[in-house]
Amino acid sequence: MNEQPTVDITDYIDKRKVNAFNALIVALSFLVIMVDGFDIVVAAFAVPSQIKEWGIQNPGAFGPVLGASLFGMLFGAPLLGHIGDRFGRKVAILLSCLIFGVFTLWAAWSGSLKELGILRFLAGIGIGGLLPNVIALNAEFAPRRLQATLVSLGFGGITLGGSLPALIAAYLMPTYGWPVLFYFGGLVPLLLTIVIAAFMPESIRFLTLRDRQADVAAMIKRMDSGGTLPAGARFVVQAAEKLPFSDLFAGRLAVMTPLLWILFVVNLMGYFFLVSWMPTLLASASDPAKASLATAILQVGGFIGGVGIAIPLDRRGLLPVVALFVLAVPVVGSIGFLAQQSLFGLMIVVFLAGICALGTQFGINAVSAIIYPTALRSTGSGACFGIGRVGGILGPVVGGWLIGKHLPVERLYMIATIPFIIGAIVAIIMMPMFAQYMRTVGPGK
């Protein structure tokens, strides 16, 4: 009696060549993350106009408002990460877009700091839930040799999205007011749900773990229309169907998971201080046009850093992350000194700051997708983003408190180097552990 042939999906994906199907996933992910990136930073660009319109005397009062969406992300990342593991990545991505689209649009009619803060918190739940599920989806269709590359390329949309509010603030806000930022931030993700529903595939590894054999076979035909499989093959994934949260701390992950969490916390703290307060700080130190340009340049640098770190990360492990953390210290520290002196020098250091902060974030995002197994990947990445939001919240909130102390801009940016110093130390400690883990366990298993 002949046994039913089996096909290990993980092994199948690892051996196949990257083709147009992978390009589609990366392109859709880029688009979705671009909208997410817009909504993460959009509120910061409304602050200068809202200060005048609402008669706010202390700009630091906006610190809790700017941190509210990040606080929402603290809950959204693990919650919708769990939904992605339970009901599918595509379902969680659609739900995330609906949540942050509705509440971002609603913010266009807000009339007080309290109301805006509540709406930003609710939008943050959806914003936070999108990231781990998109990262997991990319990782689960990527051959392990290219996981970091494809995850980083898909995540690259966050930098382009983060630069667009600067353009709207510069060209449309003077005519239509600050609500125009939230119109764009709300309507676009709601329209994008139609594209996601029509074209984004569900994770093939998720379908296999749920024993949806017919759907897996159809997905393989979609992935490789000319491929052949054994007749009557059964598709399997060599992983537990359900892994408990405690497995984030099993074996070598017992040390690596907390270290990775620290990297997320400190890098997001540094990055969100930069992106949340740069439009306001540089506008007060020089002029609003320079502030908008600098904030857009920050995101452009971030895109280059994020794409540039992908291949070195696949080949060199955490070494590129260490290098970017170290470089960030002098770069970020010099921003305040150049704000009122050299426009060219300011744009150069802001560009380099984007490379460092967002390049590092892309790198540790990819690490979070690589080290956890399929049945735990959204939960693992979601936990990283959720814990990381503690730093993301502290960045704008502590920044607002320091601004309320009327510290010079130069000193504020020197203080902003502290998270990157901590990150460099932790990344150096983690680097040999990660290298050994990858040699003995391997990515994507």
Layout of secondary structure:
Elements: E1 6-8, H1 9-15, H2 20-54, H3 63-87, H4 89-106, H5 113-141, H6 147-155, H7 157-171, H8 173-176, H9 179-199, H10 204-209, H11 213-223, E2 234-236, H12 253-285, H13 288-308, H14 310-316, H15 319-338, H16 343-370, H17 374-404, H18 409-415, H19 418-440
The arrangement of helices and strands along the chain is: EHHHHHHHHHHHEHHHHHHHH
**Helix count?**
19
Named at the architecture level, the CATH assignment is Up-down Bundle
Q: What is the C-alpha radius of gyration, as a whole number of Å?
A: 22 Å
CATH first level: Mainly Alpha
Q: How far from one another are the termini?
A: 32 Å
Strand arrangement in the largest pleated sheet: 1-2
Structural class: mainly alpha
Shape: globular
The CATH superfamily is MFS general substrate transporter like domains
At the fold tier of CATH, the topology name is: Growth Hormone, Chain: A
**Roughly what percent helix?**
over 70%
Structure description:
This protein is an all-alpha fold and 445 residues long. The protein contains 19 helices and two strands. The chain has one domain (6-440): Up-down Bundle (Growth Hormone, Chain: A), CATH 1.20.1250. The protein has helices spanning 9-15, 20-54, 63-87, 89-106, 113-141, 147-155, 157-171, 173-176, 179-199, 204-209, 213-223, 253-285, 288-308, 310-316, 319-338, 343-370, 374-404, 409-415, 418-440; strands spanning 6-8, 234-236. The chain has a two-stranded parallel ribbon with strand order 1-2. Helix 3 packs antiparallel against helix 17 (374-404), helix 12 packs parallel to helix 17 and helix 12 (253-285) runs antiparallel to helix 19 (418-440). The chain is globular, with a radius of gyration of 22 Å.
